[in-house]
Amino acid sequence: MAREITTVGVVGLGTMGAGIAEVLARHGLGVVGVDVDQSSLDHGRATIEHSTQRAVDGGKLEEGDRKMLLDRIGYATDLGALAEVDFVIEAVVEQIDVKIAVFTALDGIVADDVVLATNTSALAVTQIASATRLPSRVVGMHFFNPAPVQQFVEIVRTVVSAPEVVESASALSTRLGKSPVVVGDKAGFIANALLFAYLNHAASMFEQQYASREDIDAAMRLGCGYPMGPLALLDLIGLDTAYEILETMYLQDRKRVHAPSPILKQMVTAGLLGRKSGRGFYTYAEPYSSTVV
Ligand code: NAI
Q1: Would the ipTM clear 0.85, i.e. be above it?
Q2: What is the crossing angle of helices 191-207 and 239-253, to 10°?
Q3: Which residues cross the membrane (predicted)?
């Protein structure tokens, strides 16, 4: 019988992990959030506090419920804090070596019937699974940004994922109010395989000074009805993460449309990571702010 899920470990409390922890706690689950150092952890906690305060201010959450939500989340800098959890969702940086190190460490910490899910956008889930002791319990669980808002989750099954593991990740997504779909392990899965060629093209268009950033974004918002322009979306995703996703997709499929636009690498090298660093294609009031100045 599948393990009952009452507490979920979230590894990496950045852009995605903080949002995923919030969603889990909002749906009554206990959460243990782990990040690599105290300042990242504090940042993740502050993100969750701000986001839930905005929900209260916007009338979407009662103050009392916010307090209970926040009380359900514990924080740690050591993966050992996950010894008792029932399910783990990993959301560390999009780098294969870092993810494999996290999964092999988790292997020796959690019980054998605990599902290990990765929120990777494009890395091979099969490669991460193969580095572990029990590859059949590893699955992809790709949330969308911002996790508290977006409804879709891609559940990535590998050739060795156990059917009950795929089912457990799907059931957890449904419990969180999301619409899960099951996909195979191909870089970019469904949404990013379609989205990133377009985002990359927008970055190239900006690089070539063909049009201003505002006009590129306005074309897609006001002309095509997209909720956000591509450059603003790249800033939301994080240019470092976007670069890693494109590079992974390009290495796998060699499609020119996925060869990262050089400006992305230049901006990442210069520390212009988008909203998370306070500056990307646009400049923001402070790191992680959505207010453009
Ligand atoms: P981020 O850079 O905002 O956050 C990553 C976090 O992981 C940081 O807080 C960092 O301190 C932490 N970390 C790094 N190494 C760690 C370790 N060994 N142990 C514990 N924590 C560690 O990255 P973001 O954007 O949240 O991406 C995380 C994952 O989610 C990536 O796999 C990415 O592809 C995926 N993703 C990102 C989306 C986006 O729009 N940014 C959307 C969907 C998935």
Answers
A1: yes
A2: 110
A3: none
